[in-house]
Amino acid sequence: xxxxxxxxxxxxxxxxxxxxxxxxxxxxxxxxKYDSTCKQMGIEGKKIKSELAAxxxxxxxxFSKIAKSTGSLQEAVTFxxxxxxxxxxxxxxxx
Length: 95
Fold this sequence. Notes:
The protein is an all-alpha fold. The protein has one domain (3-70). The chain is 83% helix and 0% strand. The chain is built from four helices and no strands. The protein has helices at 3-41, 48-55, 59-69, 74-94. The model has no long low-confidence stretch (mean pLDDT 92). InterPro entries: CDK5RAP3. Belongs to the CDK5RAP3 family.
């Protein structure tokens, strides 16, 4: 093997080592992000499909809470309806 070939081979090996280090760091970063996202969603992340399906059972309770909290919006809904009716009457009388 000539000296130039050895230099190219060594440069190639160093480049491979650098890329391996970069890829390992990126993999670790993505693994942390994956774990963080799983924790945020309230799952372990081992059997994603079944864990997410299990979360579906919580939806009726969540929707019930949302529905109950919308009762306090009735006054705003009534006000908006009256406002729209008032504006529409004004528009129809000016045309």
